[in-house]
Amino acid sequence: MITALAALGIFSATCVYAVGPPFSWDTVPVYSHMCNKSGPFDAGTVQQLARFPIVTVEKGQAVDDEGWAEDKIVAALKQVREVNPKVHTVMYLNSVLSWEQYHLSTVIASDPKYQLLNSSGLPVRLHGDHSFK
User: Is the pTM of this model over 0.70?
Assistant: First the structure.
């Protein structure tokens, strides 16, 4: 029971928002979805991103740098939240392609139960955006 309560406390402490971002049909809803392939966002870019109610960061964030995409995406989102803590930030994983820059791709590759297999029992392979691995 204590373990369950402790876990609940940890979970609730990490839940920052109980409601969605500000929204009105009085203006066109906008958000930002982007990445900077060559590295972390510079200060000017962070200032611009912090103006949006929702910011998502693409899988190619700092793809030319060492490290996993998940870590680089979270770091970029933290940059934006440092400027505007009210921005809703979203990290997503592509549900169709297992991009090699994701750490999760190593987990998927290591166990066939996580893979979509064809009728011959081989992993289904699709080719994505040619600008990435």
Answer: yes
